[in-house]
């Protein structure tokens, strides 16, 4: 057994123990025959099209690939530090098997994450909606490549997901197909003056990393009484660290609280991303009596 295989195994084992995500870029059929436990499989040829399945940038990864150094450089270019990149071998597979770290079949690992406001508040909101006997019906506006919409569907919501960019919607369709889940993907220009949201149809409305101020006053109308608004986007000060720099895409302190004063505000806080950019996270509930 080569020292290279022993070295690779030692890094894989220590990385797994430390919770470092493992990304396996080999072909799907090869992956199914044998892979490192808790690895996500995205064939290298599909990586760009399926990049919405990756964890947030600046997440350190362990990479397994046919051409490990080339793959590692591509990921570093996307702001993913790579702890180690290794090629698969029979010897490495044997070491993983002996350690109980070898698995077979398809990958069921999820490395991508929803918006923080969803991750932190959805469970409590879901319980509240069920106690109120409201349907779990959500809309994700400016849904992008669909991670938040898929996360809502994974949590039992019937989801409508809207975005102007059809290529992003297609990535959402692709992501949902791996579970599989039903999401109503709709191409819509939500900044157009003719855009209308259905009235009182949703128990949850979610917006992340999108700001179009003329739309804000109309969002609450789409919520049924007792429904929740979850909003997360960049705040003034983000321009000091990078994009967005245009003030039209940056929330002012207290702006959402003022716009949605008729709602019961549950959470309203500016927090910082890892790169320093401030993000406004906001949760409010529509009053039943309104």
TrEMBL record:
Specify the superkingdom: Bacteria
Gene3D superfamilies recorded: Rhodanese-like domain, Vaccinia Virus protein VP39
Chain ranges of the Rhodanese domain: 16-76
The record's section on Pfam families has: Methyltransf_25, Rhodanese
State the name under which the record lists this protein.
Tellurite resistance protein TehB
């Amino acid at each position: 057994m080569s020292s290279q295989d022993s070295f690779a195994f030692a890094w894989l084992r220590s990385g797994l123990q430390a919770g470092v995500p493992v990304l396996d870029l080999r072909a799907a059929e090869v992956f199914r025959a044998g892979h490192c436990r808790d690895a996500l499989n995205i064939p290298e040829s599909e990586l760009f099209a399926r990049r919405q399945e990756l964890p947030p940038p600046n997440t350190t990864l362990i990479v397994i690939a046919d051409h490990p150094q080339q793959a590692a450089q591509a990921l570093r270019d996307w702001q993913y530090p790579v702890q180690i990149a290794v090629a698969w071998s029979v010897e490495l597979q044997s070491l993983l098997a002996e350690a109980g770290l070898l698995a077979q079949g398809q990958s069921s690992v999820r490395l991508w994450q929803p918006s923080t406001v969803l991750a932190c508040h959805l469970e409590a909101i879901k319980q509240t909606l069920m106690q109120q006997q409201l349907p779990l019906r959500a809309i994700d506006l400016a849904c992008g490549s669909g991670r938040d919409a898929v996360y809502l569907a994974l949590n039992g919501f019937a989801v409508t997901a809207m975005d102007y960019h059809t290529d992003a919607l297609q990535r959402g369709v692709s992501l949902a197909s791996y579970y599989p889940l039903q999401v109503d993907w709709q191409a819509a220009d939500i900044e157009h003056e003719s855009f209308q949201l259905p009235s009182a149809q949703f128990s949850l409305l979610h917006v992340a990393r999108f700001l179009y101020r003329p739309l804000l006053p109309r969002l609450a109308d789409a919520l049924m009484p007792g429904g929740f608004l979850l909003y997360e986007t960049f705040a003034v000060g983000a321009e000091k660290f990078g994009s967005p720099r245009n003030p039209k895409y940056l929330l002012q302190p207290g702006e959402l609280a003022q716009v949605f004063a008729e709602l019961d505000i549950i959470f309203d806080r500016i927090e910082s991303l890892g790169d320093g950019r401030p993000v406004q996270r906001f949760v409010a509930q529509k009053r039943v009596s309104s």
